[in-house]
Structure to design on (302 residues):
């Protein structure tokens, strides 16, 4: 993917070896220039006029929503200068990685991203119940610390087994340690243009999606719309609802909703929902929410 001969830049949660990097490379291959960032927040803020794409972990099938990502969706820049352009799903198999020769009994602490610690909670309770669990910014970041930080010599990392090829002195002690064998993480592709072209692997044109931020406002009676009222105004099939504090006062919330076009079968014989028609349907839904006195914004459409 070239922009006047210059490769587009993509930000991912680093270092190389994270699941974010893996899904980014599986999707964009050698077509973009990769830039590692220390946190998910830095990935989000990197996407600007000069940075075409960012990869944001969104939800895991065992541990649920990635809270740091949803908190970033409250940022007003999303939907103004950057947009969600697609979703990608990666099968995730975690390994317990240690310094070569270390045994389970010697492990004093386990480092990883909080998502990976949560996805492996049963293994941790059973096999290293007294180890301290330390949340760090990424899985491969944890492997790098175990490999290079003398203070982490008796620590283990939860990460992809590929990390043992990237960082010296590491080996796999256990593989497939997540609570359920079938484990998937879904990622959003963040882009600096609302309709940035994406590699074909991101696009399933039989189904269209949009991400919305909806905020109930106080009416004249001092009441707020319920989530049922907001969804009734929207009139769009909704696959995901996440609620985060708005930051504007106690128990004041924003909702992040993922909506989708009806499936092929429900489209009255049409093979798929045309992009323009889907855009109209979404904009009409947003208008209906705003007409009830609440706030709604389009964060991305694909
Ligand atoms: O730390 C990584 O490897 C990431 O890419 C982050 C992340 C996440 O935030 O969910 C991605 C996939 C796994 O679920 C665990 C961690």
């Amino acid at each position: 993917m070239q922009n006047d001969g210059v490769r587009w830049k993509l930000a991912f949660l680093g270092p190389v070896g994270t699941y974010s990097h893996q899904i980014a490379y599986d999707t964009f291959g050698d077509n973009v220039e990769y830039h590692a960032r220390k946190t998910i927040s830095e990935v989000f803020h990197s996407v600007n006029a000069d940075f075409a794409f960012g990869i944001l972990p969104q939800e895991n099938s065992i541990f649920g929503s990635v809270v740091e990502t949803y908190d970033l969706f409250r940022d007003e820049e999303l939907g103004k200068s950057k947009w969600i352009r697609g979703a990608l799903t990666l099968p995730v198999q975690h390994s317990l990685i240690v310094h070569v020769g270390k045994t389970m009994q010697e492990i004093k602490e386990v480092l990883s991203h909080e998502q990976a610690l949560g996805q492996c909670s049963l293994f941790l309770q059973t096999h290293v119940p007294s180890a301290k669990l330390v949340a760090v910014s990424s899985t491969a970041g944890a492997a790098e610390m175990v490999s290079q930080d003398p203070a982490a010599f008796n620590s283990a990392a939860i990460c992809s087994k590929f990390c043992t090829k990237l960082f010296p002195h590491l080996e796999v002690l256990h593989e497939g340690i997540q609570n359920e064998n079938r484990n998937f993480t879904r990622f959003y592709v963040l882009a600096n243009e609302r309709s940035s072209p994406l590699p074909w692997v991101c696009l399933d044109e039989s189904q269209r999606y949009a991400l919305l931020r909806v905020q109930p406002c106080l009416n004249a009676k001092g009441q707020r719309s319920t989530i049922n009222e907001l969804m009734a105004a929207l009139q769009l099939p909704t696959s995901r609802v996440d609620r985060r504090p708005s930051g504007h006062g106690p128990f004041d919330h924003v909702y992040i909703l993922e909506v989708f076009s009806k499936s092929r079968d429900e489209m009255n014989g049409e093979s798929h929902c045309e992009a323009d028609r889907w855009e109209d349907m979404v904009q009409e839904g947003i208008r209906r929410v705003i007409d009830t006195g609440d706030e709604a914004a389009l964060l991305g459409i694909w």
Notes: The radius of gyration is 21 Å. The pocket of prephenic acid is lined by residues 13, 18-20, 57, 60, 66, 92, 113, 115-116, 138-140, 185 (CB under 6 Å).
